């Protein structure tokens, strides 16, 4: 019984799956043999494991998407830092402070300020040799 509850608890946390339940009923006591009960418990254990794997895959997919977005924003910020460094003849740290202050003053995200810096420097936007 505890295994079925674990499976249901795991399923409740899955964002992309609907809740489902399984109920095995009998009209009279002792309708199921020990072998039937063992088979049902084995199935519940396997279902719980499959649900845990599905949850882990969903979490890894979300993490992967977040990391890819962070890398894309990092590239934009780094290119903007280079533009600020060239315009102001300053270090990377000083350029970062300039961008950060501009973002705070405009109440914008740093990546958005960086994108506007890049747009102001190059009408077509900047690209790197790493762009596919």
Descriptive account of the structure:
It contains four helices and no strands. It is mostly helical. The longest helix is centred in the middle third of the chain and has 55 residues, at 34-88.
Would you spell out the secondary-structure blueprint of this structure?
Blueprint (H helix, E strand, L loop, with lengths): L1 H11 L21 H55 L3 H15 L3 H12 L11
Count of the separate structural domains: 1
Give the oligomeric state of the chains in this entry, treating copies of one chain as homo and distinct chains as hetero. single chain
**How much helicity do the residues have?**
over 70%
How far apart the termini lie comes to 53 Å
**Cα gyration radius (Å):** 27 Å
Shape: rod-shaped
Contiguous uncertain segments of 5+ residues: 15-20
Mean pLDDT: 80
Encode the helix/strand succession as letters.
HHHH
Structural class: mainly alpha
Count of individual beta strands:
0
Please summarize the sheet with the most strands: none
Determine the strand fraction and express it as a percent band: under 5%
Enumerate how many helices there are, as a single number: 4
Features:
132 residues, 0% strand
In a nutshell, what does this entry contain?
By secondary structure, the chain is mostly helical. It is 70% helix and 0% strand. Residues 15-20 have low confidence and may be disordered.
């Amino acid at each position: 019984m505890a295994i079925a509850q674990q499976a249901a608890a795991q399923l409740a946390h899955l964002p992309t799956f609907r809740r489902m339940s399984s109920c095995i009923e009998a009209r009279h006591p002792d309708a199921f043999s020990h072998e039937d009960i063992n088979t049902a418990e084995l199935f519940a254990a396997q279902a719980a494991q499959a649900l845990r794997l599905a949850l882990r895959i969903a979490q890894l997919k979300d993490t992967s998407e977040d990391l890819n977005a962070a890398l894309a924003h990092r590239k934009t910020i780094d290119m903007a830092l280079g533009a600020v460094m060239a315009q102001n003849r300053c270090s990377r740290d000083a350029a970062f402070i300039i961008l950060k202050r501009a973002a705070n003053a405009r109440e914008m995200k740093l990546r958005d300020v960086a994108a506007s810096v890049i747009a102001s420097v190059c009408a077509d936007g900047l690209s790197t040799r790493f762009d596919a």
